[in-house]
Amino acid sequence: MDFEAIIMEGTLILKIKGELDQYNADRYRLRFDMKIVSPEVQKVVIDISELSFMDSSGVGFLVGRFKTAKAFAKELVLVCNQTISTSFYQLVE
Amino acid sequence: MKVLNYMELKIPSKAQNESFARVAVAAFVAQLDPTLDEITEIKTAVSEAVTNSIIHAYEDKIGEIIIKGKIYENYVVEIEVIDFGKGIEDVELARQPLFTTKPDQERSGMGFTVMETFMDKLEITSEVGKGTCVKMLKAIKKRKSEGVEN
């Protein structure tokens, strides 16, 4: 897994590429949170449209980042497309 | 059911091996010419089972995980993920969606639910202090006549 972080006018865009599993969740959790809580950030966008794989650890990771953003009163938006199995979303709902 | 092909894999419970385990199983299943969705479902289910062994069965120590794959007649795949860790006290409770023993660690509690949803059959046998065996079965839709010899 790899990611790109861009800040534009107070909006942090985190684009994740590759595989989001338990191994990568543990590696990137702190780095993502540090960026999310940064004072110059008001809004967060996590883009998972280029993820090639995600399991329930990845879902836990995304929910965790939502919680971090919420705790610091920041809005978090998730961007995705159809490449991640749609059945996963049915499951999460 | 007659076993047409099989494989066995032994790995230490290191998180780096999660991706290796699911890709290895996917490569083994590839001989049945599954669809991309079927491959993704199998990979995700294997990832969940292996993650469980790493996170829950062995927790802070490193133990062995055995992954067995079998291909039966009629394109049925069986995957077993076996560990010798701490075991599950209440399997029925563990299978409940959103149940987790580690809510503080961002565990979604969806591991077994994912396995159940993506595979056709899920069997869990576990003994406290001895380990856990997760057995999953999935029928691959037949797409071509060649491939595994029946």
CATH topology of chain B: Heat Shock Protein 90
Shape of chain A: globular
Gap from first CA to last CA of chain A: 25 Å
Low-confidence stretches of chain B: none
Overall tally of domains of chain A: 1
Shape of chain B: globular
Largest beta-sheet details of chain A: 4 strands, mixed
Quaternary assembly: heterodimer
Strand order in the sheet with the most strands of chain A? 1-2-3-4
Please tell me how large the radius of gyration of chain A is: 13 Å
Q: Helical residue percent of chain B? A: 25-40%
The CATH fourth-level homologous superfamily of chain A: STAS domain
Order of helices and strands of chain B: EHHEEHHEE
Mean pLDDT of chain B: 93
Topology:
The complex is a heterodimer of chains A (93) and B (150).
Chain A: E1 2-8, E2 11-20, H1 22-36, E3 43-54, H2 56-71, E4 75-79, H3 86-92
Parallel strand pairs in A: 2-3, 3-4
Antiparallel strand pairs in A: 1-2
Helix pairs in contact in A: 1-2
Chain B: E1 3-12, H1 17-29, H2 36-57, E2 64-72, E3 76-83, H3 91-94, H4 111-118, E4 121-127, E5 131-139
Antiparallel strand pairs in B: 1-2, 2-3, 3-5, 4-5
Helix pairs in contact in B: 1-2, 2-4
For the structure shown, list the relevant keywords.
heterodimer; A: 93 residues; alpha/beta; Transcription Regulator spoIIAA; 4-stranded mixed beta sheet; 3 helices; 37% strand; globular; B: 150 residues; alpha+beta; Heat Shock Protein 90; 5-stranded antiparallel beta sheet; 4 helices; 5 strands
Please sum up the structure shown.
Helix content of chain A is 41%, strand content 37%.
